[in-house]
Amino acid sequence: MRFTVKFIIFNVFFFFSEINFIDVFDPSYFQIKYTGFRDRPHEERQARFHTACRDGRSEIAFVATGTNLSLQFFPANLHGEQRQTPTREYVDFDRETGKVYLKAPMILNGVCVIWKGWIDMLRLDGMGCLEFDEERAQHEDALAQAAFEDARRRTRDFEDRDRSHREDLEDPVASKIWD
């Protein structure tokens, strides 16, 4: 358990110490832009952005740092499955006219975060931020602990089998049985 907790704490420290992410990992929002299909005309980019949001994905960048993210607007499913279409909680076209409000959980530099923000449907820019996801971090920590314990159990089983095998090879009585 200590190993896993230290690992999570180390990653949180590493995350906070990254220059590019200190600026965007703040409760206040920062300017973002849609970065998909930069080579296409603006009207086509608008249509593709709208379609991508309905499909549950998009590419954005924080303007101040140039940090690019490929987002998926689905709940952080604990079983690895993803929904076919995102719910209104993750992609909301109705909250404000001309804007889409987005939410994307992810693991960034080993830290569970939620990207939240909005993008203007005409200009393809808006505001967004990253927030620490405490609930998912606890779940991921529990998964890491379980994996660590499973690896420890398998190592112990292997060592027991290896020790038993060596004892069988060294036992003279067992060797006479085969003669």
The largest pleated sheet is described as: 7 strands, antiparallel
**Order of strands across the main sheet:** 3-2-1-7-6-5-4
Mean pLDDT: 80
Assess the beta-strand content as a share of residues.
Answer: 25-35%
Number of helices: 5
Q: Give the helices and strands as they follow along the chain.
A: HHEHEEEEEEHH
Structural class: alpha+beta
GO molecular function, one term: sequence-specific DNA binding
GO biological process, one term: regulation of transcription by RNA polymerase II
Subunit structure: Heterodimer with RUNX1, RUNX2 and RUNX3. Interacts with COPRS. Found in a complex with PRMT5 and RUNX1.
Keywords: Nucleus
Topology record:
Elements: H1 2-17, H2 19-24, E1 30-34, H3 42-55, E2 57-62, E3 68-72, E4 91-92, E5 99-108, E6 111-120, E7 125-132, H4 134-170, H5 172-177
Antiparallel strand pairs: 1-2, 1-7, 2-3, 4-5, 5-6, 6-7
